[in-house]
Amino acid sequence: MAGDALILTVVAISVPWFASILVAMSRRQVRVIGFMASSVSVFASALLLRSAPAGESLYEALMVLFSSLAAGATLIIPRRDCNPGTIGGILFILGSTLLAYSTQNLLVLLAAWILSAMPFCLVRWLRAPSWRPQTALLLSSIALALASALIAAQGHAMSIVSLKGRSPGGMVAFGLLVVAVIFRKGICPAHAWVADAAEGGPAIPTALQLNGHFGALLVAKLIVPLFPDTSRNLFPLISYLAIATALYVAIRALTENSPRRLLAFIALSQSACILAGLESRTSEGITGALVHWFVVTVSTMGLFGILRLLEVRFGDNLTASRHLGLAQHAPRLAVFFVVFGLALVGLPGTLSFCSQDLLIHGTLASHPLIGLLLPIATAMNAVSIFRLFTRLFLGKRRTGFTLMADALPRERWILTAGVLFVVLGGLFPNVIVAQRPAEEETVGQAIRAPRRPTMFCPDRANRIDGPFASISNGFGQHLGRSKGRALA
Amino acid sequence: MNFSQVTLVFVVLAPGGVFAVFALLWLLGWVPTERVLGRITAQTFSGCVVALAVILWKLASTGDGAVVVLFGNWFAVGDYHFPLILMADRLSLPFMGLTVVLSGLIGQFSATYLHREHGFLRFFLLLHLFAFGSLLAFAAGSFDLLVAGWEMVGITSVLLIAFFQQRPAPVENGLRVFAVYRASDIGLLVAVFAMHHWSGTASFVAGLPHLTGAQVVIVCLLLLLAAAGKAAQVPFSGWLPRAMEGPTPSSAIFYGAISIHAGAYLLLRIQPMLAQSRLASGLVIMIGIITAIHGTIVGRASADAKTSLAYASLTQVGVVFVEIGIGWTWIAVAHILGHATVRTLQFLRAPSMLHDYHQMQSAMGGELSPAGSRLEDLFPKRAQLWLYRWALDRGHLDTILDRWVIHPLMQLSNLFARLDGMGLHRPARRPEEVAISMRPARQGGG
Q1: Does residue B279 sit in the same domain as residue B233?
Q2: What is the pLDDT of residues A342-359, one digit of tens each?
Q3: ipTM of the complex in this document
Q4: CB-CB: which of B148, B194, B417 is closest to A348?
Q5: Cα–Cα 20 to 30 A to A65, which of A100, A338, B184, B272?
Q6: In chain A, which among 399-458 make CB contacts under 8 A with chain B?
Q7: Cβ atoms of residues B274 and B281 within 8 Å
């Protein structure tokens, strides 16, 4: 059984890589090759998911999701972008990301981390307006490499399973891992590179890369299992940073007029909620974060895909500073956009309504302050995404051109599949949520365990720590509930 | 499930089903004709009216207090669960009846009114979605489900305000209304969480959740925030004239009948809780009185028919809030039913108001009596001028909101933009124009 799983994993990872080499060499039929290779990954990941034991299928589910998105990306990508560089990049990112999801080895994880960032270090591929994307990815890779070296030196092992709970490398390794998360995930103050990358990079591959959510992966896969005690004590700090990012970026998005940057800010703000949920130490919060991971990934891919289709049809001068009235030319793209956009921010009837509900309940239970700020950030994101929708699609039609194609059948079917995922997931959320509690147990058992007195809070077990501790604890007491109950 | 339960499920799901089928078919390339849309809409809402009549007859004949349908949990995690409960009781049935009757009438009216209008299909799809959201909110047996319906009503409302999408004003006003809705809905979300947290449930099938004194006050205040936002009560009244940009039939059903009264329904639902808290009920009364006065003063200075009707509507909803705060729940329900019906008629007749006025004058054989239309003459001249200026700017509510909330937020956003641009070799970012319109609302709609 383990042998089968290994073969399937190797197939899921290696086929896209080989295909990317093939695409670079042959330079013909790149869309067909890309779609076939990513379909093989989807199939292999689905078989892996099917054979995975209950409660240990999170990464297999993510592999299916990511490879499906890559397959969708190869189909939806406009003809203008359908060149060996872009398709090859998508396949390369797919292989690297699946490698990161599937591995239980520290060194392999580091390699996958670096490989997935490599396309963004190529100047020809990423025409970012600044040096920040490359610098952030480089710094995160260096931090992870140093942390891995420390962990390997002190833990005398490279297997994540054998290093579990041993806190190898101590606070220094933990700190370096947190730095890696901050830079890779775009946590404030290292958030600006995400918008730069979205603005300068090829839209669809960049969205795919950002949706790997390597930062959250590092938290769930490495930081929590390896450093349970330190995580329990210092995780609130990451949680506060995550919610600060969600708020900062949500406010920042209010006046942003570049559609790509605006979408990047909204996606970043919503994905920061994943970290806040993971840290909430409640079943609802962690499950909500895991479900939200799925929602953010699908919705942002859909939004970036539609945006790229509009750019190709309308020209690269799309802006949110005035009304463009594109809905009259492309009503179906407008509907897809508004559904994906509102699905990202908790529209009832979509999966994010469920994930936001769980996230807010979970975070409010553990950190009232964060829990109150989360809906505020989401509300601002909703306003921003609706503003972008109104500016792009509504208003008076431009007279400069007469015809613009709506969604082509190829694009329509892919976007419909995405919409069906978020809508059917919203109508029958238990199909997805019911899979998560066991996984939540895996991710959250270390964080959610009752606290022991530590050097940071020797006599205040089960209290909220962090820079806003007094506010949070005070508010919690004011609400007349015990922290212990929230942690139970 | 017995017959009444099946009927209740049909009433709630029928408009949603019509919306889903037509939307999916449209996405796949099929566009229904106006005749098909009109007929299916009429048949759907007629079926709903008959089904509701059956439920009412069953309840009357059996003497039961409510029809309850338990579907189990929509989703559940640990101790937390999202129950799917539908309930038609004495409070929700009148609202459900109002929704299906008026939606059907609006459908019939719009089939002619919007004939050959670009966006005919869009209007009917949104009408069905709105009816589904309203019925879900009114038939919800828990606050969790009420939130889902509540938000759906908000989204459809905004999309209909921006119905005439070729003009920038409706689009910008739709965005503004959306922002106000989202801000006030935070109160509802946090209140539902608080109920779950303190009493373990947000279901009200077996009575409202048991809460202590302080908890009741907090929950009531949070729900009041949501209700005031939805019902355009002071200080949220600024969005109501902006909402008049939508087509007249949608203005009638949203701001004359259903949506504007959704806030009152929420307060009626929690009335036993309000009765426990003098602070909360006092605040409800105070907001109601202030809104009623605000509505009547501003309405008198409104230059177009729909806006003055909207403010008249606001005045009545303010009075309804007062009735709820005092505890006269059944008077409030009767007031809502009567007001919604009359106001819908007035809104629908608004485009032909002058014609109606002339007809009435002809029938009367002279000028209509101006009784009550010059109450402001009771004030001194100086106060009249001040009031007029105050009314023209709609109580300065939008100005206050712009100056103290939106403008600082935009400045903060521009500051963040400058911070983000530090260290880059490119021209400094020009401060962007205010994203959410600070222009005064344009009056009148289609």
Answers
A1: yes
A2: 999 988 889 999 999 899
A3: 0.90
A4: B148
A5: A338
A6: 412, 416, 419, 429-430, 433-434, 436-437, 440
A7: yes
